[in-house]
Amino acid sequence: MTHHDREAVGPAYDPLRMQHARRQSWAALQGIRERMRPGISEDEARAEAGQVFAALGMDRLWHPVIIRIGPNTTKTYREPSTSGVRLGENDIYFIDLGLVFDGHEGDVGDTFTVGEAPRQQACAQAARDLFQDVAGVWRNRGLNGPSLYNYAHERAETMGWRFNHAIKGHRVSDFPHAVHKGGDLGDFEHKPAEGLWILEIQISHPTEPFGAFYEDLLTHAAS
Hints:
It is a single chain. The protein is α+β, with helices and mostly antiparallel strands. Helix content is 33%, strand content 23%. The protein is built from four helices and seven strands. The protein has helices at residues 15-33, 42-56, 118-141, 145-159; strands at 60-69, 91-101, 104-114, 162-163, 170-171, 197-204, 211-217. The strands form two sheets. Strands 4, 5, 6 and 7 form a four-stranded antiparallel β-sheet that branches. Strands 1-2-3 form a three-stranded antiparallel β-sheet. It is globular. The two termini are 22 Å apart. The mean pLDDT is 96. This is Aminopeptidase P family protein. Keywords: Aminopeptidase, Hydrolase, Protease.
């Protein structure tokens, strides 16, 4: 089903199970969102996430649970959070999950606000809108990875947001995808195949200390 070595999958790979992992991952993200409330810390939110995963029958994590609050929403995957940050009454946070269900990898992320935070809410929606825009370009124009991320950068600037170039998307498949050395979507010089690549979008306000994140599996059906 694949055209390039970087899109190799294991013998257990099943597109239907990939979609199941995606659905369950989104259900887990929603379950964590329902537990987020003013005053909670990132560590406390991660601890409570374990109860959500157990209820959904998760096999395991394939990357650590990432929950960023307030100014930490501008940080990338590998950057440590500033400690001591708690969710304010009018604030922003994002959730980034890498979960395995039935031997297949889900990877989802989204950004939310609490209280009255209109600028932060606009940022969260912009990340979703930009994801849908870029995913639509992938479906309709067949751009390769670098072209998709160049397009994302241009669109983010047009929309008035700062684009995070350190986030470039990546492979998923039957666990573990890392054995196939698929690398970053932003460096993949061919049209990405359906159901194998995660498109990641991270933006931030040009002057204020908050940002937003959204990621999902590239599929021909719009989410």
